[in-house]
Protein 1
Amino acid sequence: MEPLSENNDAPTSSSPHSHGGTTSSNKEFHRQMSLPSKETLEVLEMLAKSYQELVDRANGIEADFRTGTSSGGKATTALSQVEADANRLQEKGVDSVQIAELHSGKETARALRRSLNQGLEDFFERLGFLFKEFRKGSVASDGKNDGGDVNGAGATVNDQHAKNTGATTRPIQQPTTTSSAQHQASPAAQHQAASSAHMCGPTVRGGAQVDPQVVPPGSVHYPSLSPPGDVRGERTPRRDLDQLPHLRQQEQTRQDLFRQQHAEQMRQQQLQQEQMRHQQAQAQQEQMRQQQVEQMRQQEYDRQRRAYLEEQRRAQQRDPFGIFGPWGGLDPYRGRRRGFFDM
């Protein structure tokens, strides 16, 4: 299995059975492969095709952004969808493939999945770089105006590097200062960058907006909801709400609604606790009543048993030999017992 190339091409299998050999060897190889192994390899090949489609989509978004066809906001939205699809491909596709239960073809499937994981990891790093570029609101002409080195053929270093390594490689980041970027960018791009920098709200990985009813209003500036090590980098803090009265009113309304929901939840919890305490008290009272009834029954049984034993003892004292028994003195079992005259 060949490692993933630098241009993020779809991983392909380098097995001798798949590339070379005679027709008979290919038939023997497919005959040796079990049905689950064949299905697993087909699933991995489909995942590799999906991965290549994501790479092509990212290349198209980057090309539209650098040529000025799409703005930074549109490019960020489209790239966020690509990132969400890549996350779904890794979590529900590559990570869910089971290889340990295969009867044959384990090494091929394992190498293919390893190359897919490595390719997705590099793809996420490239997405993080593109997110930072789109957030700056730069256009394709910035690289040329900043003095991109031109070779003898008239192409910049970035174009020559992309031609040598493939269209999907990471472009070289030009070190530009904030002042130079502001002077070189157009007024529309500056306005869009300022709007995206000040008006960005809490987002999660994938670009989806967070429901304001779910996020507890702790402070004006929400903390970053992205996991540690997120490739999208640090978030830009929001503008102070004192400068935007309508946003401050929305924030106050959101806080009031959250307090009402919290108070309702606390009231429901208190009611449930009171009901549980009442049920426990009733159960304890019923248990104590049952214990008292059983105790009274046991006491009555003991009293009757003592009376019966006392009656038997008095009868034995009155008739020690059992002559006047229930048989009228003709007890058939009397001769088998040792009595007074048998001693």
Protein 2
Amino acid sequence: MCRNDGTPLSAADFAGVKNYVVLHGSWGMPVAHNFEGKVVETGLAGATVCDYRNYCHGRFIYTSNHLKDSAVVLLVSPREKTSPAGRRCSCLPRRSSRS
């Protein structure tokens, strides 16, 4: 896993995450639900699974109100890299402006 700029992430980067938002396209749906199950069932954090096309219908509000303790996992297949899902990475905040 890495940041939007390609910088690798370490375990310490996830220490404060209390909620994951897992965005997926058609091919990423099984992975998204598997990730959500692992995170929730181990008690690490909460997780919300959403098709990236539905994220703009208001689901982004929770994330924008909880930037300090939320992380967005964007699952993009090679076929979707040039689609709106692939370009959505550049629209997500890199860090909380409230930290």
Protein 3
Amino acid sequence: MLFTANLSDFRMSYQFDAKQFLRLALIYSDVRRNPNNYLVNVDARERNMGTQLVYSYMINPLSRLFIGYGDSAFADEATPGLFRTEQAVFMKFSYAWLY
């Protein structure tokens, strides 16, 4: 066996009304490797988890506002639990130009 990867992807959306929704995404991966089969040093186990929460509001049919939060976490043999590696808060405004 070279490696085994277990991937889990959970997504959930809630539509408040025709103009706004909330979306949650949880993505988890667990990779187990046989270090004897690699020419370079690799960890025998590596885990990653990413989360994202996004709120969207449609201002008009051509404009939409997104506000969200996302983070990711990592664990390998040296860390006993998931360690947060990145965090982000974002806002995006989109507009469809007509010409």
